[in-house]
Design a protein that fits this description.
Strand content: under 5%
Largest sheet: 2 strands, antiparallel
Distance between the termini: 72 Å
Order of helices and strands: HHHHHHEEHHHHH
Structural class: mainly alpha
Oligomer: single chain
Amino acid sequence: MIGERDPQALARHRIGRVKASQADIARALTGNWRVEHLFVLRQALAMHDDIGRHLAECDAKLQWLMAKLGQAKVDLGKAPRAGSKLRSEFDVRQILANWAGVDLARINGLAATTVMKLLTEIGPDLSRFANVMHFCSWLGLCPATKISGGKVLSSGTKRSANMARQALKMAAQSLWHSGSALGAFYRRLWGRMDKPRANTATAHKLARMVYFMLTRGEEFVDKGQQHGEEQQRQCSVSASKRRASDLGFTVAPSAAAAAA
């Protein structure tokens, strides 16, 4: 096909997903084949092929490195059918779980690619961090409060190019439509603050989960959106009772609430 300029011949290679008909594509390919345009197109194709070659080399090197990772076998359940796209994702997830000792992809919002970014940045051993607060501070997900003369000047998080931080913030954004407890948590925060702050707070919560799973070997169990909403309701009720008690009042549930 190199050097082919016949519009009808080129249009026959239309991909089935393209909505335009073969005739429409042929009309779009009909025109003047100017020398400078062909030169630019040839250069662009060469760069595309060269980038593809480098990506293939990176994928091969990554597969070679990942094959050496992990000792313990983490049970992820039944594997999908061999040769399917789900099977390739499952294999990557299995390698990462064996390396970390736990399956971080069980956390809502953390896909296998996100877990790979996290583990390549922080590794499975977090013993260099004294506690979870040090870990979250290193990620730049803790408020950097600035106080002068007893007055709080700012309390936002510091700017950071940390790749693990960016991966967690991207994972937090994906929870907007999630029916999990984490999804309910993210939407609840977004209802009372702006989106960037809600995203950072949710990424901070994800970071804490990652830390405890890697350091304690805990398994993540999603209790569902309803459990998260009920937990928040109980916290609101407790806070209301404390405020009423400070003012000298006693809060009692209504008959309908008590029956529920």
